[in-house]
Amino acid sequence: MTVNTITVGPGKLTIGADAGLTNFSSQIRSGKLVPSVDKGDPIHVLSGEEVPGERTEKFQLTGNVQQDFGAIDSRVEWLWEHRGETHDFEYVPSTAAGRTITGQLIVEAVDIGGDVKSKPTSDFAFDLVGEPVFDAIA
Length: 138
Known about the structure:
Layout: E1 12-15, E2 22-23, E3 28-39, E4 43-44, E5 50-51, E6 55-66, H1 75-81, E7 86-92, E8 99-106, E9 121-136
Antiparallel strand pairs: 1-2, 1-7, 3-6, 4-5, 6-9, 7-8, 8-9
């Protein structure tokens, strides 16, 4: 049996569309598309059977970004300026795999600063609007 695996990177993460496209690829230290499912309690009915509870799926794009506060075209400052806004995104975990993940996400601000004499990073978690789309890299 052959086991297929990927190595993350080189890849790409962009947020925004066309003229407003912001490329985060050179600062992303990790990235993941994270699904989660909420299941409601089953409903008991007179016959003794159970009706499944409501099932809700959610998706997030999470990861870690190298901070660049104060730099020209700072990505961290872009996140602060656009927090709460919905933007298109494209995430390619590995160009060698030939697949891309696209959709819309809600931008959130990240931490700024860290330990003295360090190169700080910030964790991020962006909720997706709807389901992500998997496709071949154009």
